[in-house]
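Hi Y.,

Following your request, here is the sequence exactly as I used it, all 241 residues.
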Amino acid sequence: MTADDLVLRGATAADLDATAHLHVEQLPVGFFPALGPHFMRRWHKTFLDSPHGVALVAVCRCDAGEQVCAFLFGSIDESAHMRAVLADRRCLLALAATAAVSLLRHPPLAVRFLRTRARPWTRRLLRTLTSRPAASPARTDPVPVALLAAVAVRPSLRGSGVGARLVELFLIRAHERGAATAELVTGAGPDGAGAFYEHLGWSPGREHRTRDGDTVRSYRHRVVPAARPGTFCDERGADPR
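Below is the corresponding structure, written out as C-alpha cells. Let me know if you'd prefer a different format.
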C-alpha cells in the first residue's frame, strides 16, 4: 500500500479508539501515552471539540471498513486552544478522572506523577475549577502560533509519504486560519523525528530536557500558502478539524 491508496480526512469521534492505540504504540515517549489508550482517547477528543484544533487521519478501505493508518493532531492557535480546553470544566474533570484511574492501576506511574507533576497540575486544576468562567476568553496573541502536537504512521507505511502529506495539510489549514508560524517538539537524536521534519523544511531550535529527563528539540516552520493548491481533498467537503 502507498500514500495514493489512502484517503486523508478530518478525524471523527469514531476514529479515536484507533488513534489512541496508534499513539500509545508508535509515540510512547512522554507522560500522556503512559496513561494508556483510554486517557489518550479523551486527550485526542479535545482537538475535535476545540474550535482551534486540527485532527486529521489517513484511512485505507478494506472489507472490514475503514482502517486508520496515520493521524495528526495539532492546533492553529495553541494559546487559544489551551484556553478553550481549560475553560471546559467537564473536559478537565473527565481527563483528571481517567488519569487518576490509570495511576491507581499502575503504582510506578503514580510515583512518577507525584515526583514530576503532582503540584503544578493540581494547582492548575484547582485554579481552573474554582475560577469564574469568562464570558468570552480574551485573545492575547496578535498572530496565532500553530502547534503540531503529534503525528503517527503505521510502520508498514513509513516512507510512503503519508506523514509528509498530513504535515503539509496541517500547514495549509494553519495558513487559512491566520497563523504565521508553526512549532513542534520531538525527541533529539536518532530516536526523534528531527531528520523527517528538517527534510520537510522545519528549522531546528534549542534542545531542552523534559520533566522525565528526555532530551527534546523544538522546530519552527513559516506558515505560507500551499504551493500546490488542490492537492488535498476532505471527502466530506469540510474544513477537517
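The two ends are 25 Å apart (CA to CA).

Thanks again,
Q.
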